[in-house]
């Protein structure tokens, strides 16, 4: 331990790394107060996630003339993100499949919910993949009907 301390002091002069007392205010209780922590947990409102959607799709064909191709992608959206007026959207992050020695990434916000009857809905998203191997792909995707969390 002493070797480490000496080594650290040579690498980092005392004025670069502040003492712990300089970082943590004296008024802060460093020893956990478990009763206080329990009370804080009790007072917190639970974060309720309403639902997510599965999605799957294919990109449009693109690429150099001698290797035009498309990619597939699938995943699960983010949780619902409220929109003004009471609707909501989701975010989609995904990688495409690996084809012709490359992949693309997808990051897009869906549109608002589209009612499909029976208190169910879907979302649409349109976008472009990241550029890889000198090209990108456009895509249109619809989420699957929501998977409510009970």
The tally of structural domains comes to: 2
Q: What fraction, in percent, of the residue positions are helical?
A: 10-25%
Biggest sheet descriptor: 2 strands, antiparallel
Tell me the total number of β-strands: 12
Runs with pLDDT <50, length 5+?
Answer: 1-13, 20-25
Structural class: alpha+beta
The order of strands across the largest sheet is 1-12
Rg over C-alpha atoms, rounded to the nearest angstrom? 25 Å
Distance between the termini: 52 Å
The helix tally amounts to 3
The residue-averaged pLDDT reads 80
Shape: elongated
- The proportion of residues in beta strands is 25-35%
The succession of helices and strands, N to C, reads HHHEEEEEEEEEEEE
What are the salient characteristics of this protein?
two-stranded antiparallel ribbon, alpha+beta, 2 domains, 150 residues
Set out the fold topology.
Elements: H1 2-11, H2 20-23, H3 34-43, E1 51-52, E2 54-58, E3 72-76, E4 81-82, E5 88-89, E6 91-95, E7 105-109, E8 114-117, E9 120-122, E10 124-128, E11 138-142, E12 147-148
Antiparallel strand pairs: 1-12, 2-3, 4-5, 6-7, 8-9, 10-11
How would you describe what is shown here?
With 150 residues, the chain is an alpha+beta fold. It has two domains: 42 residues, no CATH class; 98 residues, no CATH class. The protein is built from three helices and twelve strands; from the N terminus they run αααββββββββββββ. A two-stranded antiparallel sheet has the order 1-12. It is elongated, with a radius of gyration of 25 Å. The N terminus is likely disordered.
């Amino acid at each position: 331990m002493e070797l480490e301390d000496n080594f650290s002091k040579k690498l980092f002069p005392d004025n670069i790394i502040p003492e712990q007392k300089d970082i943590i205010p004296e008024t802060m209780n460093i020893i956990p107060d478990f009763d206080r922590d329990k009370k804080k947990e009790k007072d917190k409102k639970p974060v309720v996630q309403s639902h997510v959607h599965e999605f799957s799709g294919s990109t449009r064909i693109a690429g150099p003339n001698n290797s035009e191709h498309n990619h597939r992608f699938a995943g699960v959206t983010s949780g619902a993100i409220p929109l003004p007026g009471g609707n909501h959207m989701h975010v989609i992050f995904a990688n495409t499949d690996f084809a012709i020695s490359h992949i693309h990434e997808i990051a897009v916000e869906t549109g608002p919910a589209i009612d499909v009857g029976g208190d169910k809905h879907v979302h649409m998203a349109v976008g472009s993949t990241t550029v890889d191997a000198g090209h990108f792909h456009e895509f249109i995707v619809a989420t699957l009907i929501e998977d409510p969390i009970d």
